[in-house]
Amino acid sequence: VQLCLMKIRRQDTFERLAEQFCTSPSNASIVSRKTVPILSHLLKTLIFFPNPNLVKRTLPIAFRNSYSHVQSIVDAVEIQIEKPSNPVNQTLTWSEYKKCNTIKYLISCGLDGFINFISTGYGGRISDVLLFEKCDILDKLPEKCGVMADRGFKNIKPLLVEKHCELIKPPSVSSIHKPTKSEVLETKRIASLRIHIERVIGRLREFDFLKPHAVISHSMLSDTDDIIVIASALINLQSPIIKI
């Protein structure tokens, strides 16, 4: 377990890990590959949507006035991967945003920064809206809740309406019409609350394996879904990012 966690946290090579654990690099790799799915299976129970009534009773002060029904703050996380040799996979994983080949995840946290959902990985080409639709977060969202997101997720509103949920995002920006004072204030208010998902992602990035330009190798790509689950669960064991 320690070898596996060191690989995730520090992105050490198997050669270096083998030296520390007095084994061969091939054996260190085998141990890691066998341990990762077991750890993921055990720790994924720490990633869940808490009871909405419990959430409301422990609501952070910043959310109490206008956003007491918010259960999810969503965003996308991208991690650079080794360039695939297959041209089709190169296209599917190319991210225009990152300008490299990436694997992309949807992450959701609660009002206190508790990670309540992490999707499986998709090619970096996928849009935020399609990512939201393809992963199974809609099956897990409590009904009639609020979902906070940035403008990149504006087209998920019809998906949420079917679930009787509300999308909370900054007002749309137009090059023709100047935003009103109330729209400016609303944008600032939402941005000040959405920053919490960025702080959660920042904690994920503390794991060297999950840094933006970690360049995950082909051999480790199949383990990445399990690794991000492990990291998310460990983050949920840390102190909340928001004072309640």
Secondary structure layout plus pairing:
Blueprint: H1 2-10, H2 14-20, H3 25-43, H4 52-57, E1 70-80, H5 87-93, E2 94-95, E3 100-109, E4 115-118, E5 122-123, H6 128-134, H7 137-140, E6 146-148, H8 157-162, E7 166-168, H9 181-204, H10 218-221, H11 224-236
Parallel strand pairs: 1-6, 6-7
Antiparallel strand pairs: 1-3, 2-3, 3-4, 3-5
Domain DDE Tnp4: 74-236
Cofactor: a divalent metal cation
Organism: Trachymyrmex cornetzi
Continuous helix count = 11
Beta-strand percentage?
Answer: 5-15%
Question: What is the second-level CATH architecture of the largest domain?
Answer: 2-Layer Sandwich
Share of residues in helices: 40-55%
Shape: globular
CATH class placement of the largest domain: Alpha Beta
Describe the sheet with the most strands.
Answer: 7 strands, mixed
Query: By helix and strand content, what is the structural category?
Result: alpha/beta
Q: Please compute the radius of gyration using only Cα atoms.
A: 19 Å
At the fold tier of CATH, the topology name of the largest domain is Nucleotidyltransferase, domain 5
The H/E string reads HHHHEHEEEEHHEHEHHH
Question: What are the low-pLDDT stretches, counting only 5+ consecutive residues below 50?
Answer: none
Mean pLDDT, to the nearest integer, reads 90
Counted up, domains total: 2
- C-alpha end-to-end distance: 33 Å
Number of strands: 7
